[in-house]
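Design request, tokens follow.
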């Protein structure tokens, strides 16, 4: 997977929060592909390792906050009982916490010896990366296929505006909303 796929979505896309979240998911898939390659090759180059570490400790956390603090709460209010979203959102929120713990472990592996040009990935570390990538891919499939699909149907224009505002504030992007 080329590194271009690792670039963050442009801030202009924050006006369409569901499109931004979908783009963030594509980026997450690219990250999973890189982690799987690290595991297969049992090594990681310093530049890629550092970019991955920066992503796992930076933008990925922002993405989880976008969902936990903005998207999920609004969607919880709008979803109909028949949507059965309550259990799904609770599970996804739990996976964020569990995934964060796994990501912290991966960051520790990748940043243990910052002066080394290559990070040696031990078998157990590679297995942890594969397991993390697999669980993230399942998580992404559920979010794209169920959560975002329902969000497109259930959320109102003001809902989307509120989500967009929260995501911009989180990134220090100035909004020019009309009063
Ligand atoms: Fe997500
Ligand atoms: Fe998520």
């Amino acid at each position: 997977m080329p590194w271009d796929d690792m670039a963050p979505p442009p801030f202009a896309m924050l006006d369409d929060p569901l499109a931004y979240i979908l783009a963030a998911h594509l980026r997450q898939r690219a990250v999973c592909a890189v982690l799987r390659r690290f595991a297969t090759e049992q090594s990681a180059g310093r530049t890629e390792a550092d970019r991955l570490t920066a992503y796992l400790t930076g933008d990925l956390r922002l993405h989880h906050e976008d969902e936990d603090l903005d998207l999920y709460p609004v969607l919880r209010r709008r979803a109909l009982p028949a949507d059965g979203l309550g259990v799904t959102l609770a599970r996804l929120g739990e996976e964020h916490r569990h995934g964060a713990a796994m990501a912290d472990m991966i960051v520790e592996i990748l940043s243990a010896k910052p002066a080394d040009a290559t990070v040696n990935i031990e078998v157990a570390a590679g297995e942890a990366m594969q397991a993390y990538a697999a669980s993230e891919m399942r998580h992404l499939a559920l979010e794209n296929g169920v959560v975002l699909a329902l969000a497109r149907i259930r959320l109102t224009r003001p809902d989307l505006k509120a989500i967009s505002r929260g995501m911009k504030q989180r990134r220090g992007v100035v909004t020019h909303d009309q009063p």
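Comment from the thread starter after seeing the answer: thanks! The two ends are 44 Å apart (CA to CA).
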